[in-house]
């Protein structure tokens, strides 16, 4: 008896990891043309899939961008954790090494980074997984600062959350300026040099016994 040939229904498409492929295509598009150029129609055309297939995974552009950001924060968290662990293993400053890792991640993963810290989401609160992953990444930095306060006593009078925000603002600024090519001469090593200098200045100030300014959250505790 002749074998029965089963045909796929018209328009059916099977991909072993369509969500991953869509996310990778979005990252590539952002890198080459920017966030504003990203559309679901274009992503579908790149992969040869229908909009119906895309909508099974992402209801709109914002949802796809949220997935790019979530993936970025997960990678980011791993980079920070690895930097801190390696620093502790060789008795180096984990906060300084995390700053270097922070800027290194931003420069090596600019599509993810611009999406993570951009204003691409219409309703970011709709994506609890993204908020959780972003919070987990920040907690790596906060935890390192809290641990350093306990171990060395440096900056013990300050709220660790305030110190984390100050450090984050500094490395974010270095990363943003580096991506824009605004740090002047110094080549590829300039962002790392600035990160290390910032961390050492912060630590030196805290070691010198700098006290919280009156009226700050630290002062109010």
Task: Describe what this molecule looks like in 3D.
It is built from 10 helices and no strands. It has helices at 18-33, 40-47, 51-55, 61-89, 94-108, 110-116, 128-152, 160-179, 189-207, 217-220. The chain is mostly helical.
Task: Give short descriptive properties of this protein.
221 residues, mainly alpha, Arc Repressor Mutant, subunit A, Tetracycline Repressor, domain 2, 0% strand
Write the layout of secondary structure elements.
Layout: H1 18-33, H2 40-47, H3 51-55, H4 61-89, H5 94-108, H6 110-116, H7 128-152, H8 160-179, H9 189-207, H10 217-220
Helix pairs in contact: 1-2, 1-4, 4-5, 4-6, 4-7, 5-6, 5-8, 5-9, 7-8, 8-9
CATH topology of the largest domain: Tetracycline Repressor, domain 2
CATH level-1 class of the largest domain: Mainly Alpha
Overall shape: elongated
Helix-strand makeup class: mainly alpha
Which H/E pattern describes the elements?
HHHHHHHHHH
- Which value, in Å, is the CA radius of gyration? 22 Å
Name the CATH homologous superfamily of the largest domain: Tetracycline Repressor, domain 2
Classify the helix fraction into a percent range: 55-70%
What can be said about this structure in brief?
With 221 residues, the chain is mainly alpha-helical. It has helices spanning 18-33, 40-47, 51-55, 61-89, 94-108, 110-116, 128-152, 160-179, 189-207, 217-220. The protein is elongated and about 60 Å long.
